[in-house]
Amino acid sequence: MVDEEELLRRWEKTVEQLFREGVIKSEPVRRAFLKYPRYLFVEERYKKYAHVDEPLPIPAGQTISAPHMVAIMLELADLRPGLNVLEIGTGSGWNAALISELVKTDVYTVERLPELVEFARKNLERAGVKNVHVILGDGSKGFPPKAPYDRIIVTAGAPEVPRPLIQQLNPGGKLIIPVGSYHLWQDLYIIDKTETGKIKKRRWGGVAFVPLVGEYGWNE
Ligand code: SAM
Predict the structure, then answer these.
(1) Is residue 140 annotated as a catalytic residue, yes or no?
(2) Considering the chain, what percentage of its residues have pLDDT values greater than 70?
(3) Residue 15 contacts by C-beta under 8 Å, 6 or more apart in sequence?
(4) Considering only CA atoms, which residue is closest to atom 24 of ligand 1?
(5) Ligand 1: which of 54, 88, 98, 154 to mutate, most ligand atoms within 8 Å of CB?
């Protein structure tokens, strides 16, 4: 077993490397990464690998994303204190914890697998995160009770952009979502809703996420 001090030392090195490489671009994202190290959000046996810049297994056959991927999506989302954010695909709860540190207000995150809702809630509690609300449900339909959102961040790959997510976006809001094939490759899109309600779509590049399974996603 690797002790906590060593886990933290390894994690700080990873964060500094991502910062040097320009993957982490902003001080707030760097501070959030340092506040919530990835090893707090994986099972005991994976903690010693949490600093490695690759996805890791979490329960129910799902994954916690690689640190560089999480940093890229958070930077693209351009998060600021006070924004109303919805995350789809809670997984371990790590990304939601980082979002909550950046917006400093309540964050809503939807997960379809009960086992992971429980896993994420425990991780968040242990990490001392108080403003993340983990909701069990099909996030491909969004989460109407707290809409409209300034940002929606989807951390699973969709066959196409789910219509409800566009509808639940505020004018001036952004949706970050991987869209593409069921397994392996998707393209990451940044979808802006202008102040007049027009939709503008930009492609960032290739990514690899587990599938978004649901009414507006893939069939199980
Ligand atoms: N953001 C997560 C983290 O920080 O650990 C990693 C997310 S993992 C790559 C994708 C997650 O999306 C999985 O936990 C999966 O169960 C979930 N998922 C897939 N389809 C979903 C849906 N329709 N609604 C909510 N969650 C979904």
Answers:
(1) no
(2) 100
(3) 24, 30, 33, 34, 67
(4) 139
(5) 88
